[in-house]
Amino acid sequence: MSLTIAIDGPAASGKGTLSRRIASHYGYRHLDTGLTYRAVAKALIDAGQPLDDEEAAIDAARTFDISDMRRDVLAAHEIGEAASKVAVMPGVRSALVARQRDFAAQSRGAVLDGRDIGTVVCPDAPVKLYVTASPEVRARRRYHEILSNGGEADEEAILADILKRDERDMGRADSPLKPADGAHLIDTSEMTIEAAFRAAREYIDAAL
Ligand code: C5P
Predict the structure, then answer these.
(1) Position with higher pLDDT, 70 vs 122
(2) Which of 65, 85, 107 is the last residue of a domain?
């Protein structure tokens, strides 16, 4: 049997790593829906259009090539910030949600991760996970990630950015980030990725 698995959580909670691990273990396709919002933001930036141009953003949301989204190209911090701005526009959300649902429907087993997967995109998913960690732990992880990639970073500034992004994602009117009904909570603040994966597997295996 194959399932749709819905994974939500705030920035740097560990949900991306966990989602990839789950998809590879069960042989399911994976869609990082954050990349779809990032792709729209990047299209606007590249075209020199303002981020609040809803018509241009909807057009980009309908037409960008979903099979060509590259994490390395879309990873920049500024693109994440810009993505959270385009993500407040309902027209952008409905265009992207339609494409995310198509992805799930066309897959024999799919893992989708984002902010509104269990609440809006796939509310009937048989397994929903809400992955979180304290803002301080998330900031520290991001900080070490940047350092280990040879970059420079200021942990305080990262924490401030994380709090600002949480506020925008949890406070917006359309599809705010919150645990879906029936979601299993996984708090990774004091967990290794291996322990989080074990917890997720128990929920998934029980649904198979
Ligand atoms: O997860 P990531 O940092 O790539 O997401 C970038 C931004 O896209 C988030 O801060 C959020 O505003 C938006 N997003 C969303 N709904 C999703 C996935 C991402 O609103 N399902």
Answers:
(1) 122
(2) 107
As for how many domains the chain has, the answer is 2
* 1, pLDDT greater than 70: no
**Sign of the torsion formed by the C-alpha atoms of 200, 203, 205 and 208:** negative
Residue 130 sits at φ, ψ, to 5 deg, of -120, 110
- Is the per-residue pLDDT at 7 higher than 90? yes
Task: Using only the alpha carbons of the chain, give its radius of gyration.
Answer: 16
Q: Identify the residue whose C-alpha is closest to ligand 1 atom 14.
A: 34
Question: What's the whole-number mean pLDDT along residues 142-166?
Answer: 94
Supply the residue whose CA is at minimum distance from atom 5 of ligand 1: 34
CB 13 less than 6 A from any atom of ligand 1? no
Prediction ipTM score: 0.99
Query: In this predicted structure, what is the pLDDT of residue 71?
Result: 84
**Domain final residue, candidates 44, 74, 107:** 107
**What burial class does residue 180 get, using C-beta atoms within 10 Å of its C-beta: 0-12 exposed, 13-18 middle, 19+ buried?**
buried
Which of 44, 84, 132 for a ligand 1 pocket mutation test, highest count of atoms within 8 Å of Cβ? Answer: 84
- Does 100 share its domain with 3? no
Q: Closest Cα to residue 196, out of 13, 29, 35?
A: 13
Q: Which of 2, 8, 4 is nearest to 118 (CA)?
A: 8
Phi, psi of 181 (to 5 degrees): -55, 130
